[in-house]
Specification:
Blueprint (H helix, E strand, L loop, with lengths): L1 H10 L4 E10 L9 E4 L4 E3 L4 H17 L7 E4 L11 E9 L4 H8 L4 E6 L3 H9 L5 E7 L13 E5 L15 E4 L4 H18 L4 E4 L3 H13 L4 H4 L2 E2 L12 H13 L5
Parallel strand pairs: 6-7, 6-9, 7-8, 9-10, 10-11
Antiparallel strand pairs: 1-2, 1-5, 2-3, 4-5
Helix pairs in contact: 4-8
């Protein structure tokens, strides 16, 4: 993720104090595991902003100057004394970090995101890849056309050329959220059918989303019934995809609406 890469690059040249949310109680601005890296002249990442973050930065720089960090997390109540009305309690860990710690920090902070399988390298697919760069997803991007993938993709995006494209459904990570938006309706239909067969066998795809109109889905539904899928199985497909009420048809708008819908499927 961009913040992590920025942190590790800066860490090669200067020491930092890594501030992490070790524990959170009640209403808090960030979840356990959230972090920021405090350098003498820069801050990367965030633990939620506001006065809590300002005080944490000041304390981290004191630790950096002293060359020593707190042995135990510091308890911070988010009440009037901090000017924040969240009402919860955050326990912050502080630790010194240097260039020698880069590999271990990469492994520790690069948490695996929720798996998403994106079928389709068109305009909306590209827009979705750009959007998820800083979101908690691990993206598996699949197309039957090898030339559609850009030379550079974010670190948590894996590209796969699959011909036929629906063959990739068998090897998707369990728990994958599936987005189907290939260049052809024929491919879309085969991908949906493959997902429904996998659901019948394993029931491990919690979201199957198909781009298109209500008319397209009505046609697909009829064809899938002819293939033996019943109404309960077809109910696993969300089509059209996207948050209801967002009417724009520009690729960026569809992508934003779709990614927002995906975020609704991720447990807090």
């Amino acid at each position: 993720m961009p913040d992590l890469e920025d942190f590790l690059q800066r860490l090669r040249a200067a020491d930092a104090v890594l501030v992490t949310v070790a524990r959170a109680e009640g209403s808090t601005p960030r979840e356990p595991g959230a972090w920021m890296a405090v350098f003498e002249d820069a801050v990367v990442g965030s633990i939620g902003g506001g006065h809590l973050e300002w005080q944490a930065i000041a304390h981290a720089r004191q630790c950096l100057t002293a060359g020593a960090a707190d042995a135990a997390p510091r308890r911070c109540a988010l009440g009037p004394s901090l000017g924040q009305c969240c009402g919860g309690v955050v326990h912050l860990g502080f630790e010194l970090a240097g260039a020698r710690d880069g590999a271990a920090l990469r492994q520790r902070l690069a948490r695996a995101g929720t798996p998403v399988a994106l079928f389709g390298g068109g305009h909306v697919g590209h827009a979705i890849v750009r959007l998820v760069a800083e979101l908690p997803f691990s993206l598996h991007w699949i197309d039957s056309r090898d030339e559609v993938f850009p030379d550079q993709v974010p670190a948590h995006v894996r590209c796969e050329h699959s011909e036929p494209v629906q063959a990739a459904v068998r090897t998707l990570a369990p728990g994958s959220r599936v987005l189907i938006m290939s260049f052809s309706h024929a491919e879309d239909l085969e991908i949906v059918a493959a997902c429904l067969r996998r659901q019948r066998e394993r029931a491990d795809l919690p979201f199957i989303g198909l781009i298109g109109s209500k008319t397209k889905w009505a046609t697909f539904r009829h064809r899938l019934r002819e293939r033996g899928f019943d109404a309960q199985e077809l109910a696993a497909v969300t089509s059209p995809i996207g948050v209801p009420g967002i009417a724009g048809k520009q690729p960026a708008v569809i992508a934003l609406s779709t990614v927002a819908q995906l975020l609704q499927t991720v447990p807090p």
